[in-house]
């Protein structure tokens, strides 16, 4: 069976830019994201610079990764940066208490992370330690990173082999301060934020964009209190964390072999992102009608049970066609709310949660989620074209979600791109887009789809799910007709 939907795309005088930083990523000292992910043993037979895996760097450069958040996550609030500088064989070891109790040898520290960012050509986004660190420690870290004049931290950095400051811009003041970052109340945290932030200095040519640790999912009181106490001039952004869960926190379900009920539950949880952005956004509007402060969704993605037989503290999960739909739908939501959402980071880049890349020793594969980021990169820094439509429903008999998600933009060369997803696993949907004022001559497209939502890319079949040319779209003047197959994500280029 099939359904139809009419979409009005407002293509006149776009004023809202989609920040490329919405397409950011997150790499924590957790499981096999850094160690045995980005950072491998000397003996591993893969292209490397120092111990950084270059096949992974190349894959991430291909999707124009705009930023990378580090070192956590919960790890950030037990990380002491001085343990991660200087000769590697002299760095102290520590316990990673959050993630499996493994030994952290600190071989990947500040210099290594910034080298990785420079290889990737992306902006570093560092999360400072508020939970168990001091104001002085955070302040000195910033001096070490960003100051070029005569100072003790400049000296130390030079001794460690780096002459010029890196000029890190994005600075998180704590992480999940309501939870693993210190179990604080919003009043207490916002006072701490002001104290830490007062000594988090902007050095010459290195203005800091300070980001407050924001709400857990629908904790609107957290956002309200921080906006009131810190105020829109005291921060560049405030975060929001929301993970997609198939059946709630205690019933996440598997990453593969899940039921349709679990699939439906994931779609519902994913689409809740829009409600969260609207409601946190409305609170922010009250204190910040000019929208100076960015809503930074710096942890999102699906969280499932770990793969059987793997360390439960490592959060290693497979990545399915379901996850690709979640990414496609969520990124459309972010684009459409890019007036407020100006940065986001998927959790997490390699081998952890909704990963872009999975590795097995020398082998690596690109997940269905990776391919969505590849298809959607056309939106980076493009101008949003707002869309208006009422989506057909996908229902489990009791509840409903939107089957279709769409966003559109115009790039600096005048090309229009539309990304669409259809989460309905059985119904194809005919989408009719109206872009008044345009007269298109051609449409090109790519599609990501698979027979089942449980399908994955495995080390035996790494290319089972990958984008292919899409022939289901046609243009006639200002009208674009798209036949969206069930369970699919599409990108169109209109010229
Ligand atoms: O991404 C995994 C964890 O989820 C992060 O460390 C933490 O911030 C969140 O609870």
UniProtKB/TrEMBL annotation:
Cross-referenced SMART domains: Alpha-L-AF_C
Q: Which InterPro entries match?
A: Alpha-L-AF_C, ASD1_cat, GH, Glyco_hydro_b
Please give the catalytic activity noted in the UniProt record: Hydrolysis of terminal non-reducing alpha-L-arabinofuranoside residues in alpha-L-arabinosides
Q: Which GO terms describe its molecular function?
A: alpha-L-arabinofuranosidase activity
Q: Name one Pfam family in it.
A: ASD1_dom
Domain Alpha-L-arabinofuranosidase C-terminal, by residue range, is: 298-488
GO process annotations (BP): L-arabinose metabolic process; polysaccharide catabolic process
User: Which EC main class describes this enzyme?
Assistant: hydrolase
**Superkingdom of this entry's organism?**
Bacteria
Keyword annotations for this protein? Carbohydrate metabolism, Glycosidase, Hydrolase, Signal
EC no.?
3.2.1.55
According to the UniProt entry, the coiled-coil residues are none
Assembly and partners are described as: Homohexamer; trimer of dimers.
Protein family: Belongs to the glycosyl hydrolase 51 family.
The name this protein carries in UniProt is non-reducing end alpha-L-arabinofuranosidase
